[in-house]
C-alpha cells in the first residue's frame, strides 16, 4: 500500500510536466495542422537554457526558469515565421518533413554547442524530502508540479478569456470563416506555435534539474508528447491534460509492478490499443478547443 | 528517355558496379558502398509506401530491425522461457534464417497494415513511430531472447553454394559487395514489376485521389496492405543482409534516426520514382565520407542533412530525379528528340481493377 | 546521370583518401574508440582527455622510434554496433596498427571479433567484465581490473563495514551484470544475505521504481554499478525516497568529485571503489607519473571529477607507446608480441600482463590496485582498502 501511494504521488508530479508537453503539441496540431517534430528539441532547448543560466551564469533559479520559457516562446515564433509561414496550406506530410529536418538540425546543434556529455542542474531546494507518513517527495519535484499547474491554468485562461484565445478558437473551428471575420491567421499561427513551444521549453526547464540534460532527451519527449496527444485526441486541450496524467500513471505503475524496463513502452502500447478501439482518442471533441 | 537509351544506361550502370571491385582496391570505400547499398534497399522498400501509396510511414526501421533480429536469432539459435515453458531453437543455416526473416518481417507488415490503415494522416504517422519504438523497447528489455543492450554478437556469415565452385563464404568486403549488389538489383526488379502491374497502378491512383479510386471500385485497404507487406519484407531482407555483414545487432538498430535517413534518401532522390532512392541513397551514403575528408564534425554533418531536407521540400519538392528528368526532357525537346514516354509518376487514367 | 554523380563523388573521395595517406607517413597512428556521446559520454571524454595528455607528453619527449605518435579518436556513441563500425574504420581506413578502447565491457566485447578478424591488438583501459580476457581472444590486453579482482579486494571490508544484507542495482549490460555477479558471489561466501538484484537500462534516468523495491527489501548496503551520470541520479533519488542503506558504487567510474559537485549532500555517506585516488597521490605505487598526469590535467582545465577516469587513457597510451618501442616497428603482429614484454610504471601501478583464458589463445591481464573511498561532509576521505 505504501508502495502504491508512493507510485501514485510520483505519477501526479510527473503528470504535470507531461500535460505541459501534451498541451503544447495538441494546440499546434489543432490550430495549425502541423505534426511538430521540433517539440522535443524545444523541450531540450528549455533544459539547456536552464543549465546555462543556473550553472554557467549563476542566475537565480526562478529568474532562469522565466528566461528559459521566454526564450522558448521566441524560438517557437522564429520557427513558425521562418519555416512554416511559407508552407501555409501545404499538406500535413510536407510540413512534417520540414519539422523533421528542423528537429535533426536543432538536436545536432545542441550537441555541437553543449557536447554529448550529460549536464546536471543544481536546484536551490533542500535535498531532504518532504515526508508525509510512509511517502516522501523532494521539494524540487513539488516546485515542478506547482509551476506546471500554474502554467496549465494560465494556458486555459489565455484561451478562454483573452482576445487572442478567442481568435485561436475561431481559427481552430473554421480557418476560412475566421479569416473572413477579420482574424489575422498569420498572427494566430505564430502565437500558437510560440505558446506551444513555450510550454515545451517550460517542461524541459522544469525537468532538467530533476534528471539530467543531454542532447537526445528531446527524442523521448517528442514521442511521449505524441502519445499524450493521441490519448486525449488530437487538438483537445483537456484531453492532453488528462492524457498527460494517464501516461504518467501508466508508466509509474508499469515500472513499479510490471518491469521498470518497459516503463517507456507503456505509452506506445496504449496508443496502439486506443487507436484500435477508438481511433479519435479518448476525449476527442472536434467542435472546439479549450 | 526512350526505352533503348534507358536499357543501355541500365546495362552500363550495372556493368560499372559489377566490375568495380576489380579495379577498386580501397576496401574502406567498398565498406561504404556496402552500407550505402543496404540502406538503398531499405529506402527502395520505403519508397513503395511513401512514394507510390503516399503513406508516410515513419516506423519503417522497425521492419529493418525485425529482419536483422529475426535472421540473427534464427542463425544463432536461442532458448527462452514463456511462462516457465522452455522454447528452444537450434541454430539454422544463414540462408534459411534470412528467408525466415523476410517472411517474418512481411507478416509484421501485414499485421501493421491491417491495424493501422484504419487511421490515416497524422494518426498513421504516430502509430508507425510508436510501433518502431515498441520494437526497440522489446529488443532492449527481452534479455533472454535479444541480450538487450549487450547486443547479439558473433552472428554467423552467409555461405552460398555455387554450381562448379562449391561453398563460398560471404565474408569480408568483396563477397558482401556482390551480395548487396545482387539484393539491390532483385529489389529494384521486384518493385519495378509491382509498380507497373495493375496493383501498382491502383496504388498510384489511391495516392493521387483516394475518393475517386474508391468510387471506381479499388479496394483501398487491400492494396495498401499488399504494399506494406512487400515493403516490410524487402526492408526485412535489407536488415538480414546488414546483420550478417556487420555481424552484430543491438536495439539501437530501431532508432528513429535510421527511418529519417531512409526518408531523406527517398525524398531527395525523388519519391515515387524508381531511381529516386538509389540516387538519394548514393548521395547520403557517400556524403559522410566526403564531408569527413574536410574535417566536418558528425554533428555538423547532421545539421547539413536537416537543412538539406528542408531546402529540398521547399525548392525541389519532387526530388532530384524528376527535376533532372524534366531538364532532360526540355533539352531533348529543343533538339527535336521524340517525346519521352509517360513515367510511373503520371496519374494513370487506365488504373481500373 | 547516376553514373556522373557517382564518379564525381568517387573522385572527391579519392582525393580525400590520398590526402590522408600522405599525412600518415610522418606519424605512428594509434586508434582510440571511446564513448564521446551517449550514455557513457562523461567517462569516455575523460579517457580521451587523458589519452591526449599522454600523446603530447610522449611527443614532447621525442615520440616513438623517431616518429611522433598521432591519436585517431573515434566516437562509438556508447553503442556496440557503432563501436564495431569505429574499429572497422580505424583498421581499414586509417590503417592503425593498435587500438585502445572501448570503455564499456559491452562495447569491448562487441569489437573483439573484429580484432581477431584483422589481427590487430587492443589495449583495454576500463572494461571490467571477466569474459573479455577469458574467452580466448589473443588480441586483448587489459590494464584495468576485472570485477572479480575488485570483489576479492573488497572482501576484508565486508566485516569491517558490518555488512549483513546487501541489495544490488546495476545496468543490464556486461559491466553491471558482471560486477553484480562477482560481488554477490563474494558476499555470499562471507555469509552476507543478498536481497533484491535490480537492473536498469544504461540510458534510464528515473529509478524510483527500483529504489522503492530496494527500500522494501531493507538491506543495510546497496551496491550500485554504472557510470557517473546514473550514479548521480541514483544518489539524489535515493535521498528523496529516504533510502537509508549505505550506498557503495563499484567499477571505478564514479568520479567522486563530480558526485559531490552534482549530487550535493545526497552524496554524503556513500562509498566508492576507485583505481586511482587523486586525493592522496602519496599512496599510489608510482607517484611520479601520477603527479605528472595530475599537474597536466589541472593545467588544461579539465574537470577535477575526471581525474579518476582520465588516467586510464593516459596509462593506455603509454602502454601502447612502450610496446611499439619494444616491437621496433609499428606493425600489429609485432606490437601484439611486444605487449607481452611491456612493463610500464603507470598510474594504475606497475603495468604488465599475465596470461588469462584458454591455453594457446590467452589474453593479457594486468593486476592494478583497488581503493575504497568515502564521501563525508562534501569531501573525499580514505576508507581502508
TrEMBL record, chain A:
Stored Pfam families: BPD_transp_2
Keyword line: Amino-acid transport, Cell membrane, Membrane, Transmembrane, Transmembrane helix, Transport
Subcellular locations according to the entry: Cell membrane
Topology in membrane: Multi-pass membrane protein
Source organism, top-level taxon: Bacteria
Main location per the UniProt record: membrane
GO cellular component, one term: plasma membrane
Membrane spanning residue stretches: 12-35, 65-84, 138-159, 191-214, 226-250, 262-284
Keyword Transmembrane carried by entry: yes
Nucleus is among the record's keywords: no
Swiss-Prot/TrEMBL GO biological process terms: amino acid transport
Gene Ontology molecular-function annotations: transmembrane transporter activity
Annotated PANTHER family: ABC TRANSPORTER PERMEASE PROTEIN, BRANCHED-CHAIN AMINO ACID TRANSPORT SYSTEM PERMEASE PROTEIN LIVH
Family to which the UniProt record says this protein belongs: Belongs to the binding-protein-dependent transport system permease family. LivHM subfamily.
Protein name stated in the entry: Branched-chain amino acid ABC transporter permease
From TrEMBL, chain B:
Protein name per the record: Branched-chain amino acid ABC transporter permease
GO cellular component, one term: plasma membrane
Keyword Membrane attributed: yes
PANTHER family in the record: HIGH-AFFINITY BRANCHED-CHAIN AMINO ACID TRANSPORT SYSTEM PERMEASE, HIGH-AFFINITY BRANCHED-CHAIN AMINO ACID TRANSPORT SYSTEM PERMEASE PROTEIN LIVM
Region of interest (Disordered), residue spans: 334-353
Membrane topology: Multi-pass membrane protein
InterPro entries: ABC_transp_permease, LivM-like
Membrane-spanning parts: 27-49, 61-82, 94-113, 177-195, 223-245, 251-267, 303-324
Locations listed in the record: Cell membrane
Domain of life: Bacteria
GO terms assigned for molecular function: branched-chain amino acid transmembrane transporter activity
Keywords attached to this entry: Cell membrane, Membrane, Transmembrane, Transmembrane helix
Short name of any one Pfam family annotated for the protein: BPD_transp_2
Automatic annotation (TrEMBL), chain C:
Domain Leucine-binding protein: 27-378
Signal peptide: 1-24
Gene3D superfamilies given in the database record: 3.40.50.2300
The keyword ATP-binding is annotated on this UniProt entry: no
One of the protein's GO biological processes: amino acid transport
InterPro entries to which the protein is assigned, alphabetical: BCAA_transport, Leu-bd, Leu_Ile_Val-bd, Peripla_BP_I
Keywords: Amino-acid transport, Signal, Transport
Transmembrane segment boundaries: none
CDD domains referenced in this protein's UniProt entry, alphabetically: PBP1_ABC_ligand_binding-like
Family statement: Belongs to the leucine-binding protein family.
Stated name of the protein: ABC transporter substrate-binding protein
Natural source organism: Rhodoplanes roseus
Amino acid at each position: 500500500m505504501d508502495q502504491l501511494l508512493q507510485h501514485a504521488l510520483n505519477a501526479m508530479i510527473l503528470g504535470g510536466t507531461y500535460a505541459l508537453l501534451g498541451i503544447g503539441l495538441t494546440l499546434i496540431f489543432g490550430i495549425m495542422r502541423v505534426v511538430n517534430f521540433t517539440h522535443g528539441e524545444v523541450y531540450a532547448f528549455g533544459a539547456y537554457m536552464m543549465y546555462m543560466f543556473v550553472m554557467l551564469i549563476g542566475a537565480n533559479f526562478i529568474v532562469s526558469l522565466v528566461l528559459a520559457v521566454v526564450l522558448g516562446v521566441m524560438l517557437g515564433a522564429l520557427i513558425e515565421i521562418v519555416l512554416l509561414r511559407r508552407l501555409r496550406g501545404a499538406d500535413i506530410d510536407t510540413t512534417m518533413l520540414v519539422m523533421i529536418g528542423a528537429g535533426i538540425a536543432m538536436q545536432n546543434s545542441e550537441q555541437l554547442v553543449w557536447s554529448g556529455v550529460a549536464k546536471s542542474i543544481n536546484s536551490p531546494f533542500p535535498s531532504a524530502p518532504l515526508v508525509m507518513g510512509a511517502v516522501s517527495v523532494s521539494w524540487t519535484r513539488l516546485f515542478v508540479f506547482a509551476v506546471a499547474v500554474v502554467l496549465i491554468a494560465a494556458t486555459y485562461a489565455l484561451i478562454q478569456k483573452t482576445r487572442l484565445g478567442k481568435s485561436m478558437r475561431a481559427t481552430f473551428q473554421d480557418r476560412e470563416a475566421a479569416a473572413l471575420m477579420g482574424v489575422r491567421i498569420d498572427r494566430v499561427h505564430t502565437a500558437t506555435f510560440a505558446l506551444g513551444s513555450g510550454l515545451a521549453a517550460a517542461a524541459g526547464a522544469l525537468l532538467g534539474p530533476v534528471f539530467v540534460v543531454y542532447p537526445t532527451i528531446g527524442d523521448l519527449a517528442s514521442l511521449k508528447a505524441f502519445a499524450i496527444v493521441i490519448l486525449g485526441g488530437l487538438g483537445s486541450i483537456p484531453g492532453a491534460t488528462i492524457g498527460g496524467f494517464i501516461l504518467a500513471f501508466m508508466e509509474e505503475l508499469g515500472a513499479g509492478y510490471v518491469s521498470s524496463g518497459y516503463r517507456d513502452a507503456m505509452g506506445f502500447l496504449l496508443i496502439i490499443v486506443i487507436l484500435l478501439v477508438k481511433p479519435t482518442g479518448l476525449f476527442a471533441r472536434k467542435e472546439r478547443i479549450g | 528517355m526512350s526505352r533503348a537509351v534507358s536499357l543501355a544506361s541500365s546495362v552500363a550502370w550495372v556493368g560499372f558496379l559489377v566490375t568495380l571491385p576489380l579495379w577498386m582496391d580501397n576496401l574502406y570505400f567498398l565498406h561504404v558502398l556496402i552500407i550505402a547499398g543496404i540502406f538503398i534497399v531499405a529506402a527502395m522498400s520505403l519508397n513503395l509506401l511513401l512514394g507510390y501509396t503516399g503513406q508516410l510511414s515513419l516506423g519503417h526501421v522497425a521492419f529493418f530491425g525485425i529482419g536483422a533480429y529475426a535472421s540473427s536469432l534464427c542463425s544463432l539459435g536461442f532458448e527462452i522461457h514463456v511462462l516457465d515453458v522452455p522454447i528452444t531453437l537450434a541454430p539454422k543455416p544463414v540462408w534459411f534464417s534470412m528467408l525466415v526473416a523476410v517472411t517474418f518481417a512481411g507478416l509484421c507488415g501485414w499485421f501493421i497494415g491491417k491495424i493501422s490503415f484504419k487511421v490515416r494522416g497524422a494518426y498513421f504517422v504516430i502509430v508507425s513511430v510508436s510501433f518502431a519504438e515498441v520494437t526497440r523497447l522489446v529488443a532492449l528489455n527481452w534479455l533472454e531472447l535479444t541480450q538487450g543492450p549487450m547486443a547479439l554478437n558473433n552472428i554467423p556469415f552467409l555461405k552460398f553454394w555455387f554450381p562448379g565452385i562449391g561453398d563460398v563464404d560471404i565474408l569480408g568486403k568483396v563477397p558482401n559487395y556482390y551480395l548487396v549488389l545482387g539484393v539491390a538489383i532483385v529489389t529494384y526488379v521486384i518493385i519495378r514489376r509491382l509498380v507497373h502491374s495493375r496493383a501498382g497502378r491502383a496504388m498510384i491512383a489511391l495516392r493521387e485521389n483516394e475518393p475517386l479510386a474508391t468510387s471506381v471500385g479499388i479496394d483501398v485497404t487491400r492494396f495498401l496492405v499488399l504494399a506494406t507487406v512487400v515493403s516490410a519484407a524487402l526492408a526485412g531482407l535489407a536488415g538480414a543482409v546488414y546483420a550478417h555483414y556487420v555481424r552484430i545487432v543491438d536495439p539501437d538498430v530501431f532508432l528513429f534516426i535510421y527511418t529519417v535517413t531512409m526518408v531523406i534518401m527517398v525524398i531527395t532522390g525523388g519519391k515515387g520514382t524508381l531511381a529516386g532512392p538509389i540516387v538519394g541513397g548514393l548521395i547520403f551514403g557517400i556524403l559522410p565520407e566526403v564531408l569527413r575528408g574536410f574535417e566536418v564534425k558528425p554533428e555538423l554533418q547532421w545539421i547539413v542533412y536537416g537543412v538539406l531536407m528542408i531546402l529540398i521540400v521547399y525548392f525541389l519538392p519532387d526530388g532530384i530525379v524528376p527535376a533532372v528528368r524534366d531538364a532532360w526532357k526540355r533539352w531533348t525537346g529543343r533538339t527535336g528528340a521524340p517525346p519521352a514516354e509517360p513515367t510511373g509518376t503520371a496519374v494513370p487514367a487506365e488504373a481500373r481493377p | 546521370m547516376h553514373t556522373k554523380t557517382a564518379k564525381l563523388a568517387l573522385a572527391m573521395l579519392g582525393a580525400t583518401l590520398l590526402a590522408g595517406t600522405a599525412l600518415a607517413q610522418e606519424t605512428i597512428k594509434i586508434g582510440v574508440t571511446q564513448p564521446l556521446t551517449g550514455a557513457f559520454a562523461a567517462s569516455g571524454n575523460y579517457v580521451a582527455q587523458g589519452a591526449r595528455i599522454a600523446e603530447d607528453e610522449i611527443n614532447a619527449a621525442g615520440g616513438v622510434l623517431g616518429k611522433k605518435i598521432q591519436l585517431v579518436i573515434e566516437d562509438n556513441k556508447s553503442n556496440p554496433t557503432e563501436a564495431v563500425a569505429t574499429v572497422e574504420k580505424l583498421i581499414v581506413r586509417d590503417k592503425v596498427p593498435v587500438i585502445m578502447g572501448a570503455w564499456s565491457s559491452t562495447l569491448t566485447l562487441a569489437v573483439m571479433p573484429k580484432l581477431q578478424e584483422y589481427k590487430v591488438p587492443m589495449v583495454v583501459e576500463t572494461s571490467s567484465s571477466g569474459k573479455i580476457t577469458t574467452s580466448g581472444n589473443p588480441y586483448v590486453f587489459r590494464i584495468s581490473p576485472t570485477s572479480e579482482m575488485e570483489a576479492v579486494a573488497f572482501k576484508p571490508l565486508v566485516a569491517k563495514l558490518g555488512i549483513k544484507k546487501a541489495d544490488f542495482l546495476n545496468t543490464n549490460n556486461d559491466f553491471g551484470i558482471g560486477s553484480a555477479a562477482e560481488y554477490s558471489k563474494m558476499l555470499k561466501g562471507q555469509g552476507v544475505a543478498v536481497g533484491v538484484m535490480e537492473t536498469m537500462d544504461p540510458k534510464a534516468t528515473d529509478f524510483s521504481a527500483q529504489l522503492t523495491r530496494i527500500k522494501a527489501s531493507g538491506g543495510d548496503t546497496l551496491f550500485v554499478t554504472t557510470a557517473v551520470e546514473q550514479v548521480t541520479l541514483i544518489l539524489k533519488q535515493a535521498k528523496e525516497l529516504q533510502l537509508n542503506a549505505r550506498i557503495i558504487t563499484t567499477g571505478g567510474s564514479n568520479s567522486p568529485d563530480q558526485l559531490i559537485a552534482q549530487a550535493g549532500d545526497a552524496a554524503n555517506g556513500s562509498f566508492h571503489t576507485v583505481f586511482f585516488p587523486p586525493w592522496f597521490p602519496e599512496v599510489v605505487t608510482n607517484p611520479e607519473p601520477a603527479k605528472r598526469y595530475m599537474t597536466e590535467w589541472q593545467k588544461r582545465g579539465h574537470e577535477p571529477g575526471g581525474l579518476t577516469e582520465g588516467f586510464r587513457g593516459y596509462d593506455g597510451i603509454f602502454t601502447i607507446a612502450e610496446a611499439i618501442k619494444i616491437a621496433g616497428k609499428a606493425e600489429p603482429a609485432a606490437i601484439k608480441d611486444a605487449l607481452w614484454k611491456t612493463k610500464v610504471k603507470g598510474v594504475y601501478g606497475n603495468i604488465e600482463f599475465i596470461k588469462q583464458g584458454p591455453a594457446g589463445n590467452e589474453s593479457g591481464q594486468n593486476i592494478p590496485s583497488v581503493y575504497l573511498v568515502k564521501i563525508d561532509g562534501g569531501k573525499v576521505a580514505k576508507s581502508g582498502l
